[in-house]
Amino acid sequence: METLLPFALLCFTSFFTLTNPLGTMPVFLTMTNGLSDQERRAIVKRATIISFITLMVFTFSGQFLFKFFGISTNGFRIAGGFIIFKIGYDMLQARYSNAKLKEEEVKTYADDISITPLAIPMLCGPGAIANGIMLMDDANTYTLKGILIGIIAVVYFITFLILRASTRLVKMLGETGNNVMMRLMGLILMVIAVECFVSGIRPILTDILKQALS
Questions:
Q1: How far, in Å, CA of 134 to CA of 145, rounded?
Q2: What is the pTM of this model?
Q3: Residue 174: CB atoms within 10 Å
């Protein structure tokens, strides 16, 4: 029980900040400008389902990919830490990553924005995928794996509810509220990224030290 609650909180905070449904709201409203509420709900439903399935595939196939490409878990943690830190830094500056704001990308995929760019890479980007693979590696019991899957499902359900009510929420929060929320989540994300980097580089430095002393 002592390890379950901290692990569950880590899963929730990291995935919620990486998914960033509150920060996605203004972009989603811009992309769906002119569509009816029914069409927006359909787009949100499809986007969250696709995001969940995509993340599950990578989360469970991560170890296989490591073995296939000969990638070490520690190396992936370091790279994942950099990716998550960059996303958190952009959020701390209260701005979206460049990939999210390209107008030509929005126009190109206007016919099916529920897949790209809404589901991938906005709701399920490289940061979320890296986080899922790393947390699955940490989940060394079936209970922890079940918590991880459950938390991911809960986060995407909350994302669905937030985006479905995005029109009302943006008006309630206002521009200042959105910026404050994004900065807070960005700061949390940067702390998680540092933890990922340290947990990846510590074993490598320990092995180097052991070899030097032997």
A1: 12
A2: 0.75
A3: 10
